[in-house]
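Slide 14.
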Amino acid sequence: MSAPTPRAAPASWSPPLWSPGDWNALFGFGTNILVNLLVLTGLLRFVLKMPDAITFGRILPAAGLMLCLSTVYYAWLAWRLARETGRDDVCALPSGISVPHMFVVTLVIMLPIASMTGDPVKGWEAGLTWVFIQSFILMIGGFAAPLIRRITPRAALLGTLAGVSVTFISMRPALEMFMTPVIGLVCFAIVLLAWFGGMRYPRGLPAGLVAIAFGMLVAWGAAALGLATGGRSLSALWAGLSGIGFAVPLPAFDHVFGGFQYLGIILVTAIPFGIYDLVEAMDNVESAEVAGDRYPTTRVLTADGVVSLIGCLMGNPYINAVYIGHPGWKAMGGRIGYSAATGAAVLVLTWLGIISPLLDLVPVVAISPILLYIGMLIGAQAFQETPHRHAPAIVLALVPHLAAWGKTMIDGALGAAGTSAAAVGLEKMAGMGVLYEGLSILGEGSILGGLILGAIAVFIIERDFTRAAAFALAGAVLTFFGFMHGPAVGLAVTPGLAAAYALVGGLLYACPRLGLLPLAPPAAVQPSAAE
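Slide 15: predicted structure.
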């Protein structure tokens, strides 16, 4: 999709702050944010055993402040873009707490330190320090991001983004839907009919709201009849309502700097995930540009770093990120207002302590179809908005994410059984067809791995072997230091694989210079007439 042609706007023209489609995007994006906040709350309370005074009195109010600042800023950025271009179809970038980071900082940083010290507050302090470091990596990295975008092919950027959407965005909602199909599949049909099929519901009701209302009706109706569908309980809802109160974020400078005693543990993940943030933000800005809205990458990354730093200093141990899904919210009619309205709603929910009872009121399976829809749209965009001949490169960019997702599932299953891959034995698992070691190596740093492999494939298809070699050598460097294909940053993390990337780079560089290839590309990779 190419960007719409700007029109000359009258000097007095101001873009509308609210459009009818913003209702759809508000309910869709808002429920996405809500689900993430509910999961975050569950991790804090039931995994970290964080005291409610910290969870509801410090962390959630600070997270709400960060989310409000972020969504309002991106609404303003969209208004500014609409004003400059004279267009009324500009959609604000979606943003919120980074979901991968939410699990990483909780399970890899906060939980081990809380377990080691016997004090969940120490884990919270380590999480704050982690975000403090991440924020500066984002702000500094923002100045390099435009250059990286210019030299990286679109198929690689969108392909690795599609990998995230197909695995970590789409799979869990899809599984939840089929576990409770009476709610999940029907709600899925409700949103597909509106957002793909163009159906309008009575009185212009947003499809997301219709789906959630249907899910609540079925779940609570089943609860009234004593059935299990939806898992609703009046006693649980009443217990959640008793926790409603009022709390505003307070400075947490002492806690932020208290976590620096765990700096060695923190840096192992802070640096690679800072690079992950950089690449993910570039992917999402590229996705928005393909959908017609061109945002400045440096400003986006700097904003994420600044609001994350503010949230951290006020007590929030989770980082902000531009979300995947801009084309989806735009396709359902989202413009400027949905982003700011979501931020305002989140502020109310977190400062008044309403998150917990909402988890008991709305069945999550009624929200899952909205997330699956977004995953479908982003996955499709990678193929639709790149030349047809680059399709193999997109598929290759998906592969590291499939490996990462598969490893996550295996680790979860083994953990539930009280064991691990090492305890079971890698050779024994390989004998059963589970190549765990391969999943681990290929899936580590999947965002970067997908981007590098996708870029190499694109330039090979285009017969630009010098650039293909450059990306292969970049892969060698990143692999050597553990930014991809390795569990942690270090020296010679996977030296054999790094050497293999270097050999591939040398081969790619040498092939055309040694006359090993025909001068004309084969017909199989010639662009089609439609391109």
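Speaker note: Confidence is low (pLDDT under 50) at residues 523-531.
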